[in-house]
Queue: 3 jobs
Job 1
Amino acid sequence: MAGTSRAWPSFVLKFRVGTISNPSSAALLVEILAILAVGGVASGLRAWLFDSAATRVMARLRMRLFSSLMAQEMGAPPVP
C-alpha cells in the first residue's frame, strides 16, 4: 500500500518533465485531470448547496422563535 502512494508523484513528474511521449499516456492524463476537475466542481457545488440550505433553515428557525417570543404574554412586573 505504501508503494502505491509514492508512485503517483513520480507518475505526474514524468508527465511534467516530458519523459513519457506515448500519446495514449497523455490522453490518459488529460482524462484523469478532467475527472478530478469535474469532481472538484461537484464538491464545491455540494458544499454551496448545503451552506445555502443551512442558512435558510437557520433563518426560518430564528423567525419562528422571534414570532413565538413576541406572541407570548408579558408577565406582570415583580412586586417590590
Job 2
Amino acid sequence: MLQAHNDDLPLFMTWENVMESANLCRLTIKRMIAAGDFPAPVLLSPKVQRFFTEDYLDWLEDRSVNHRVQFEEQTCAGHSLRPAGSR
C-alpha cells in the first residue's frame, strides 16, 4: 500500500481539504492546474478526484519559498528597511 512521506499524514487530500488549506476556491485551483502552477489531482474512480498530499505539500513549500524571495527582492532591492528619518 502506498503511504505519504510522513506516516502521520494521509496519502490523499480531498478538494475541500486543499481549498481550505490553500485558502483558494475551486475555480482558482483549476485555473492554476491548467497553467501548470498547481499539482493536478488523480482520478481514483470516474467521480472521485484526490490530490497526493506530498505533491500538495511540495507545492506549498515551493510557494512559500518563492513568495519570500519575491518579497525580499521587492522590499530590499536598493531600499533601506529602517523607518524614514532614522539612522
Job 3
Amino acid sequence: MIVIDKKYLECICDEKNKYAFYEITATIDLFGYVLVRRWGRIGSKGRIMKERFPSQEETKEALNRVLKKRLSRKYILLEQSAPHSKKKPPPEGNGCGTSTFRA
C-alpha cells in the first residue's frame, strides 16, 4: 500500500471518561484508491472500515470531509500520524473542559 495522506486525531474528556482516537489514511492498493478509517478507545486496536474510490481527488475529498466531521465533534488533530509518540501536546483546551494530553 502506498500512503497518500494520513491524519491522527484524539478526543480526551476526563469528565465523560472519553479517551478516543480516530485515524484516517488515504492509500493506493492494487485495486485503486482506498480510505481507511480506524477508531476506538486509546490503547485498543480499534475498529477498521475501508472505502474505495475511483480517483485520488475523490479519496482526498472524502478524507477532508471525515476530518471536518471529527473536528466538529471535539477531536484534536495531532501533529504526528502515529499514536502515542513523544511529541508536543496539542494547544490548551480541547473543547471538553479539560486540557489533558496523553503521551
